[in-house]
Design a protein that fits this description.
globular, mainly alpha, 407 residues
């Protein structure tokens, strides 16, 4: 019986990770194709091409507000199918684009479609798990999910060498269809009928009113936005940094994969440590490391050219190792108090996080021209703001506990 339960849990983790991995595949597999896409659509401006990453995140933010609440009313599964249908249509728009404007519209709608697995998977996990066990499950899902960024750029490069950049989108469509079929066959509906919330024009207002009652959920949604924004700069500019600034050419996917592996290792470690140590303590310690490492780089290389790769890679690796302890835990902390509104809660917190992240990524990304320094400045500022928010919340919770005991 225990063996069957373990196999069931493994399949659940693998399925949730596979659904969310389409998101990573849609971002990372396209990175090596930026120059070829630029040639096809007649725009080789690196800042414009970086928008192919940031716009998909904009779609995530908008889509979460639509599909998340609807999943609270009509169930997780129907909205997952709707999301993938939108994604497939948007992918075809990207394939047949002849200008950067049309492709950016396609990327926004890809993001809207992919907001279904990105948001609803979190709701499904929250439906099924609580507290540190929810954080543990999120960590294992993220660890599997990280395998895609490890191989996605290399997969994109392989497709480019043998076919064309349009084939990368066809590959994404193929995987989306396979994973959707698996989800249909094996995943039961986790939203019980008695917990369905009738959809009406006040669902957002009521959800937001309920959300702002929980200061911890709001605070860690902001932290999620800061960290995501800083990481988005890396995602959108990594090809430019490694290929143009460091002249790595076709070696870029392997460096990208190596750095993604550090996130995967720490995420997997987090899954084994979080129940013993606690998600808040792990997240706090990781934020301290993240802020210290990024600030050290800024102090050492302010006003100087890029250091050698043997210096840059250890700094990035240390930062990404810390990130592996942050992504799942920060999201789980934000979601823990609002399990009773998991769908609308995941939607609004995801939207607010994206609303914070995109301006950060766009602003910092505009400075990513000659050196990698702006990337670390962004990491340092966002990490410090997150750490300050964390400390304020720790003091608030401590004060609340002492005040409660005194009464």
């Amino acid at each position: 019986m225990q063996k069957i339960k373990k196999e069931s849990q493994f399949e659940f983790v693998a399925l949730m990770a596979s659904l969310m991995s389409i998101v990573a595949l849609s971002i990372d597999a396209l990175l090596p194709a930026f120059p070829q896409i630029g040639l096809t659509i007649g725009n080789q401006n690196s800042t414009d091409l970086q928008s192919l990453v940031t716009m998909i995140f904009l779609g995530f933010g908008v889509g979460q507000l639509i599909l998340g609440p609807l999943s609270d009313s009509f169930g997780r599964k129907p909205l997952m199918y709707s999301g993938f249908a939108i994604f497939i249509f948007a992918s075809l728009v990207c394939i047949y684009s002849t200008s950067i404007e049309v492709m950016l519209i396609g990327r926004v709608f890809q993001g809207i479609g992919l907001s279904a697995p990105r948001t609803i998977c979190i709701s499904i996990i929250r439906d099924s798990h609580k507290g540190d066990y929810m954080a543990r499950m999120m960590s294992f899902v993220t660890a599997f999910f990280i395998l895609v960024p490890v191989i996605a750029p290399a997969l994109g490069l392989f497709i480019l060498h043998h076919f064309n950049w349009q084939s990368i989108f066809y590959t994404q469509i193929f995987f989306a269809i396979i994973v959707t079929f698996w989800f249909w066959k094996r995943q039961p509906e986790t939203l019980h009928p008695e917990f369905k919330i009738p959809f009406n024009n006040k669902v957002y207002l009521n959800g937001f009113k309920e959300l702002i009652r929980y200061k911890e959920a709001m605070a860690f949604t902001m932290v999620s936005g800061f960290i995501t924004g800083a990481f988005m700069v890396y995602l959108s500019s990594s090809h430019h940094v490694f290929e143009d600034q460091y002249g790595m050419g076709d070696k870029f996917p392997y460096v990208f994969a190596g750095l993604a592996t550090t996130i995967g290792i720490s995420t997997l470690l987090n899954g084994t440590l979080v129940v013993r140590i606690g998600m808040r303590r792990l997240a706090f310690l990781s934020l301290c490391v993240f802020s210290l490492v990024s600030t050290t780089y800024v102090v050492l290389f302010w006003g100087k050219p890029n250091p050698s790769l043997t210096v840059l890679i250890p700094f990035l690796g240390s930062l990404f190792f810390a990130l592996g302890f942050l992504f799942g835990n920060i999201r789980a902390i934000a979601m823990e108090p609002i399990g009773h509104i998991a769908g609308i809660g995941a939607a609004i917190t995801g939207f607010i996080s994206t609303l914070i992240a995109i301006p950060i990524a766009t602003f910092i990304g505009s400075f990513m021209t000659d050196t990698a320094l702006p990337l670390f400045v962004g990491f340092s500022i966002c990490g410090s703001l997150s750490l300050a928010t964390f400390i304020v919340m720790k003091r608030h919770i401590l004060y609340r506990k002492l005040n409660f005991r005194s009464h």
